[in-house]
Amino acid sequence: MTTVTNLGFPRIGAKRELKRALERHWSGEDDTATLQAAAAALRARHWKLQVAAGVDVPPSNDFSLYDQVLDTAFLFDAIPHRYRTLAEHEPLAAYFAMARGLQREGIDLHALEMTKWFDTNYHYLVPELQAGQAFALRGDKPLAEFREAKSLGIHTRPVLLGPVSFLLLAKTTDGSAALELLDALLPSYVQLLAQLAEAGADWVQLDEPLLVQDLDDAARAAFERAYAVLGGAAAQVRPKILLATYFGALDDNLELAASLPVEGLHVDLVRAPEQLDAVLKALPAGRVLSAGLVNGRNIWRTHLDNALILARYAQTDRGADLLWLAPSCSLLHSPVDLSLEKKLDDELRSWLAFSRQKLEELRVLADALDGRPSAEAGLAANRDALDARRRSPRVHNPAVAARLAALTGADAQRHSGYAQRRVAQHAALQLPLLPTTTIGSFPQTLEVREARAKHKSGKLSLADYEAFLEQQTAHCVREQEALGLDVLVHGEFERNDMVEYFGEQLEGFAFTGNGWVQSYGSRCVKPPVIFGDVSRPQPMTVRWSRYAQSLTRKPMKGMLTGPVTVLQWSFVRDDQERDLTCRQIALALRDEVNDLEAAGIGVIQVDEPAIREGLPLRRAQWRSYLDWAVEAFRISTSGVRDATQVHTHMCYSEFNDIIHSVAAMDADVISIETSRSRMELLDAFVRFNYPNEIGPGVYDIHSPRVPDKAEMVDLLRKALAVLKPEQLWVNPDCGLKTRGWPETRAALQALVAAAAELRAEQADANVA
Q1: Stretch 735-759: mean pLDDT, rounded?
Q2: Does the CA dihedral 426-432-438-440 come out positive or negative?
Q3: What is the pLDDT of residue 489?
Q4: Which of 79, 211, 425, 620 could in theory staple to 645 by disulfide, Cβ–Cβ 3.0 to 4.6 A?
């Protein structure tokens, strides 16, 4: 019988139960035991759900209270010195301090850096390592969760982040090579594998996603050395190893992966179906192939007939016993269960599959391979749904196609170069040296969220809701003026999410009620579903920006989400190329930018936090992506006058490799997140001699800790050591929607004071 398995399941719960449990614990409302009980209940529910959906071997240790990379660092005692004392007395508090920072009773701990997990919108915590690092098993999380499932009568396959990928995803604080720590790390893995075997685990899944990226000789040698220890004959008693790769093709790493002494290999046949033949030829006889046939990262139904062709081809080579069917990657990136979805109409819902439904699709495929007559009904229903989607008049809009066809190169060019625009903008805006601003959103308080919920449920009329939003906006403007900020924002109280808000007003988008996925920690997002051609029926933000500008004489920023980010943070249609969908979004945003300018808004920010995230994992594919991503941004922003200042914002990104493309976007001002890295991320802009203006963040809004003025001054001095004063803006790392008003006021007071102190220093230096 063909085995159905799974690489990982969403942690947060269908209705974000984990989010609520975490936030109650962080607020002090629930103790550790209560949080752990809620986590155990979710794990049990999810294991049972997977078995009910037809999974023969579900995973364990795929659950995390925050992040799987942080879990790995904590498990192997890779805890930086500053957290050590806390970790000895309060391990869970130290774990969360590493993730979020901590400020209490004389303790002031910065969080670890956070960055994107490959090309997804999930964020992981970056472990900090150093030469001579010691590792040891700390706690028994993988073992405990395996036994927890076993007590429920469910036999699982424990999941671990593999040692080489763990080291390559980490950073060293002393400039040493992380892979030099491999020999010190491996004994802890060997010890853990032996413990899992003793507990009854027959297989363990070691995730090595770095195998789908470009590797140098040192990394290749590290894989060989690591698995000679973990899988070789000299290893202690251990479970069989499934080496899991995903997010792309193995390509030039296939020979390496196939040569490692493991019992099974998982490959992504959704992103890279073309690799199957080469994988089958390279994989030694007797080795299990785990075939990733269902997309773990999107919500469309699988084309089961196509997947079945691949599965049958693989079965002919491997035989039924050595072929496992699985999603392409962990289902962490998909919502939990479509059956809970009540907002979507029947037609659109029939085109979709969430995590539970994806597992059911795998069961249909397995049953078809095994010749069970029951599979035909599932295959027939799949064909009908796919055919209905192809024929639906909701998908294509001839007017959008005509507008795309009319685009020219001039539509992606500002009227003048930056030097000329800068003169016009400074004359128009009259800003001081080191101007202060924020990234966009202000605290989304309980009052704001409740008002939005009441309006959506019909308990608050549109007129009353808009009156409430006007009051919140006016309050936000007054607060910013009192703080002394130079360029204001309206606060975005009308927005539930920086992508969903726009998608709700664009044609071609649909929205779920419970389509939540985890972004980081307790932060969950509900990506829009792009099912058809995109267009803008009417202005989306002008009403609120115009109202906010009427309340102040200071410049008011119009706030938009850029085309690449809207694309990346949505569930994107899979029936046309992504660049075509991105250009459609860009044209819709171009209309909005032009309308904002016409309404008197002289500063417009088009955020692209996801542009680095969308970069293909292989360098050979970068140029094509960057060309169309930059073009889409420029289409959105190039219709305005020279005096209109265009900003953009980017999140946790390594810019070294794409700095030329970032410069090619030609934004007048770019703000980037740099406070967690202590300005390290600014290095790329400095080495490139970035010509335009830059706002390196000085306040980490993802942490509850509030930095003081001295800390911000120190960061700004680091920036001024490498940037011209006239280039530098002063701003937080990101939007403030997740913070409370008291901490926001305190941090922004320090930010404004830091800018004032440095302005005075610059004035004194000029006089001298």
Answers
A1: 94
A2: negative
A3: 97
A4: 425
* Cβ atoms of 70 and 124 closer than 8 Å: yes
Backbone angles phi, psi at 572, to 5 degrees: -90, 140
Question: CA end-to-end span of the chain, whole Å?
Answer: 83
Decide: 206 and 165 in contact? Cβ < 8 Å.
no
Dump pLDDT digits (tens) for 188-204: 999 999 999 999 999 99
Q: What is the pLDDT of residues 377-394, one digit of tens each?
A: 999 999 999 999 999 999
Task: Flag whether 649 is marked binding.
Answer: yes
Average pLDDT on 140-166 reads 98
Q: Which of 263, 195, 205 is nearest to 57 (CA)?
A: 205
737 annotated to bind ligand: no
- Kindly state the helix (H) or strand (E) to which residue 386 belongs, with its residue range: helix 375-391
Q: Mean pLDDT, the chain, as a whole number?
A: 94
Torsion of CA 50, 54, 57, 59, to 10 degrees: -20
* Phi, psi angle pair for 745, to nearest 5°: -60, -45
> Is 89 among the catalytic positions?
no
Consult the annotation and say whether 441 binds a ligand. Answer: yes
What would the mean pLDDT of 152-162 be, rounded to a whole number? Answer: 98
pLDDT at position 650: 86
Q: Which two tokens stand for residue 580?
A: 């075509």
Collect all residues with Cβ–Cβ distance below 8 Å to 106 and sequence separation of at least 6: none
Is 18 among the annotated ligand-binding positions? yes
Per DSSP (E only), the strands in 652-727 are 669-672, 693-696
Strand 507-510 to 529-535 pairing:
antiparallel
Q: Find residue 524's DSSP bridge partners.
A: 518
Question: What is the C-alpha to C-alpha distance for residues 45 and 39, in angstroms, rounded to an integer?
Answer: 10
Please, what is the angle between helix 68-75 and helix 141-151, to 10°? 110
CA distance 494 to 469: 7
11 is in an annotated binding site: no
Please check the confidence at residue 54 and state whether its pLDDT lies above 80. Answer: yes
Tell whether residue 329 is among the known ligand binding residues.
no
Local confidence band at 767 (pLDDT 50, 70, 90 cut-offs) = low
Q: Count each helix (H run) and each strand (E run) in the chain, helices first.
A: 28, 24
Smallest Cα–Cα separation from 478: which of 513, 442, 431?
A: 442
Beta-bridged to residue 571, according to DSSP, are 529
Does 440 carry a binding-site annotation? yes
pLDDT value for 768? 57
Cβ 7 vs Cβ 268: under 8 Å: no
Q: What is the pLDDT, as a whole number, of residue 94?
A: 97
101 is in an annotated binding site: no
**Please, which residues have CB within 8 angstroms of residue 388's CB and are 6 or more apart in sequence?**
347, 350, 351
Q: Is 651 annotated as a binding residue?
A: yes
Q: What's the pLDDT band for 672 if we cut at 50, 70, 90?
A: confident
Q: Which of 123, 333, 647, 702 is catalytic?
A: 702
Q: What's the CATH class of domain 419-444+483-767?
A: alpha beta
What's the pLDDT score for residue 203? 98
Tokens read off for 267: 């490959």
Return the number of other C-beta atoms located less than 10 Å from residue 723's C-beta.
Answer: 18
Q: Predicted confidence band at 689 (pLDDT cuts at 50, 70, 90)?
A: confident
How far apart CA 501 and CA 489 sit, in angstroms, is 17
Q: What is the pLDDT of residue 232?
A: 75
Please give the single-letter amino acid code of residue 633: F
